[in-house]
Design goal:
Shape: globular
Mean pLDDT: 95
CATH class of the largest domain: Alpha Beta
CATH topology of the largest domain: TIM Barrel
Number of helices: 14
Helix content: 40-55%
Strand order of the largest sheet: 1-2-6-7-8-9-10
Largest sheet: 7 strands, parallel
Distance between the termini: 27 Å
Number of strands: 12
Strand content: 5-15%
Low-confidence stretches: none
Order of helices and strands: HEHHEHEEEHEHEHEHEHEHEEHHHH
Length: 345
């Protein structure tokens, strides 16, 4: 899922998202959309889909992770999270019910519940309290979801978020609690927050075994192309990450041969496509020399062309992963692909 935090995937038009990248779904963020443009305007517009002219699905994160990242500006309470806006310092309270109400007004297709994301590292006692609170809030989220109706006609779905930090016992307890409550899909939260990559893989592998086989499995906030393929092999279906667009704006492009830093002098007179195996508009139309020129000249077009390519690369990678799973040769293809991806120019 390309990340469109405030109702826009940075430097990318909705036309490119649909026609060039073919993104099947994008992600928005409840915290940011609540602060700006605000839930009243969103409802007046008829929801985020109509405001941003996007007909395909949208998933909205609850904003729990963003509130977690505010650090000194937030206070966790039994009934929710009190925080100060990073925009103007105003005070707000997110409760499980409130987060559902806001997402009803956003009109997203998939809603995420309010959860408490523990930092890494964290001790067992704090992780245990955090996991218990997430389960209590999950039940309240589900109750609020069942008591309210979609505002714009289209059906909405609610996922649960499994927490537990690095502790298998807590992950198991969290998954059990969420299965008992019952959700349309299940997410793995609290990873990719600073733990070693091997630890992330181990906990992903452990947690997917605890998740229903007939519901989507979503690993939140991950990651590099090789992270996605490793997680797919461990049973994950859905991902989101700002990495494709953020790296693009910093001139780091993902290709079938690894990460390419586009400001490098070697590309000054290289008139080949960025990636000969990519079908995106950037690779079909422009050369490495031109892309390097745009970045060195600090032209805004560089952000668009690079972001189009990186997102198309990610979407194509996932599409090929699905094809390989069906064909039965995913594991061999994954090893060959990662061996190329980790090569750096």
């Amino acid at each position: 899922m390309p990340v469109g935090t405030t109702g826009t995937v940075k430097a990318i038009s909705q036309r490119h998202l649909k026609e060039t990248i073919d993104a099947p779904i994008i992600l928005g963020n409840t915290y940011h959309l609540y602060l700006r443009p605000g839930e009243e305007l969103l409802e007046k517009a008829g929801g985020l889909h109509r405001l941003m002219s996007w007909e395909r699905p949208i998933l909205t994160d609850s904003g729990g992770f963003q509130v977690y990242s505010l650090s000194e500006l937030r206070k966790i309470r039994d009934d929710g999270v009190e925080f100060r806006s990073h925009l103007d310092g105003s005070k707000h309270l997110f409760t499980p019910r409130r987060v559902i109400e806001i997402q009803r007004r956003i009109g997203s297709d998939i809603m995420m519940p309010l959860d408490e994301c523990a930092a890494y590292p964290t001790d067992y006692d704090y992780a245990e309290r955090s996991t218990r609170l997430t389960s209590e809030w999950a039940a309240l989220n589900k109750e609020a979801f069942e008591r309210t109706e979609p505002l714009y006609g289209a059906e909405q779905f609610l996922f649960g978020i499994i927490q537990g930090s690095v502790y298998e016992e807590l992950r198991e307890r969290s998954a059990r609690d969420l299965r008992e409550i019952g959700f349309d899909g299940y997410a793995i939260g609290g990873l990719a927050v600073g733990e070693p990559t091997d630890e992330m893989y181990r906990l992903t592998d452990f947690t997917t075994d605890l998740m229903p086989e007939d519901r989507p499995r979503y690993l939140m906030g991950v990651g590099r192309p090789e992270n996605l393929l490793e997680a797919v092999e461990r049973g994950v279906d859905m991902f989101d990450c700002v990495m494709p667009t953020r790296n693009a704006r910093n001139a780091y492009l993902f290709t079938s041969e690894g990460v390419t830093p586009m400001r490098t002098l070697q590309f000054r007179d290289d008139f080949r496509p960025l990636d000969e195996h990519c079908d995106c508009e950037t690779c079909r139309t422009y050369s490495r020399a031109y892309l390097r020129h745009l970045f060195v000249s600090k032209e805004l077009l560089a952000f668009e062309l690079a972001s189009v390519h990186n997102l198309r690369f990610y979407v194509s990678l996932m599409s090929e992963a699905r094809r390989r799973i069906v064909a039965g040769d995913f594991s061999d293809w994954k090893k060959e692909t990662i061996a190329k991806l980790t090569y750096h120019h």
